[in-house]
Each structure stands twice: as structure tokens, then as C-alpha cells.
Automatic annotation (TrEMBL):
GO cellular component: cytoplasm
Assembly notes: Homotetramer.
Keyword Kinase: yes
Catalytic activity, reaction form: a 2'-deoxyribonucleoside 5'-diphosphate + ATP = a 2'-deoxyribonucleoside 5'-triphosphate + ADP; a ribonucleoside 5'-diphosphate + ATP = a ribonucleoside 5'-triphosphate + ADP
Organism: Fundidesulfovibrio magnetotacticus
Biological function: Major role in the synthesis of nucleoside triphosphates other than ATP. The ATP gamma phosphate is transferred to the NDP beta phosphate via a ping-pong mechanism, using a phosphorylated active-site intermediate.
Cofactor section: Mg(2+)
Full protein name: Nucleoside diphosphate kinase
E.C. number: 2.7.4.6
Length: 138
């Protein structure tokens, strides 16, 4: 059983899409192992997205991620990382496949409703950023 991190981003939380997104995740056969709502400050967002520090979009991304509450979710399943990334769809919702979370809910390339880990090492860092071992169930 593989673990991955799902973040429901500020735009989706503002639009009351938490339940709709989690419904799609569970319908796809992924299991929720931990879940919490929180709000990152700018420094925390910069820490989470540190790998993008040199990218031109870093400032906008971290400001956006600190602009409102998010929901952090640990998902589990066989090939969870790959399966969740396929369910999310392309970063740019205009390029996302029909039926993906981003095609259905994203507003723009930045306000694309969800984040997901891209590799096992990334998932380990991202999960530990938001959750400790006692918060994991299952």
C-alpha cells in the first residue's frame, strides 16, 4: 500500500468543494488515512514548496497557498501516487482530461484546486510536513 499527499487548495475550499473532491478520490478507490484543515502562513508555504524556490512562479504560488484554508489528506492504495496524479489531471485545466478533478473544478493553472505528490520521496516529505505518526489511521 503506497501513501501520497492530497492538498485541497484555497480556491476549492472557498468554493465548498472539499466533499466533492473527496468523493471523487474515494470513488477512485483511494483510502483516506488522515485529514485536517489548516491555513499556511507565507513562511510555511515557502517551506512546503522549497523545491520551486528558484522558479519564477514561487512568490505567486506561496502567496496563493497562504491566501486561505487548505485541506491536507493522506491517501493510500496500490500505486496511490500515480493513480491520484491521473485523477487530478494536468496542472493546466484546459489540458486536463475529461472527468479529472482539475478539468471539473479548477479555475486556472494557478487556482487548480488540488496538489498531489509526484514521487515516493516527495510524498514522504510532504506527508511529514503536515502529519505526525499519531495522526495516521489504518
Amino acid at each position: 500500500m503506497e501513501l501520497t499527499l492530497c492538498l485541497i487548495k484555497p480556491d476549492a475550499v472557498r468554493r465548498n468543494l472539499i466533499g466533492s473532491i473527496l468523493f471523487m478520490v474515494e470513488k477512485a478507490g483511494l483510502k483516506v488515512m488522515a485529514l485536517k484543515m489548516l491555513q499556511l502562513d507565507k513562511r510555511q508555504a515557502e517551506g512546503f514548496y522549497h523545491v520551486h524556490r528558484e522558479r519564477p512562479f514561487f512568490g505567486e504560488l506561496t502567496e496563493y497557498m497562504a491566501s486561505g484554508p487548505i485541506v491536507a489528506v493522506v491517501l493510500a492504495g496500490d500505486d496511490a501516487i500515480k493513480r491520484y496524479r491521473e485523477l487530478m489531471g494536468a496542472t493546466d485545466p484546459t489540458q486536463a482530461a475529461e472527468g479529472t478533478i482539475r478539468k471539473v473544478f479548477a479555475v486556472s493553472k494557478q487556482e487548480n484546486s488540488v496538489h498531489g505528490s509526484d514521487a515516493p520521496e516527495t510524498a514522504a516529505f510532504e506527508i511529514s510536513f503536515f502529519f505526525n505518526a499519531m495522526e495516521m489511521v489504518g
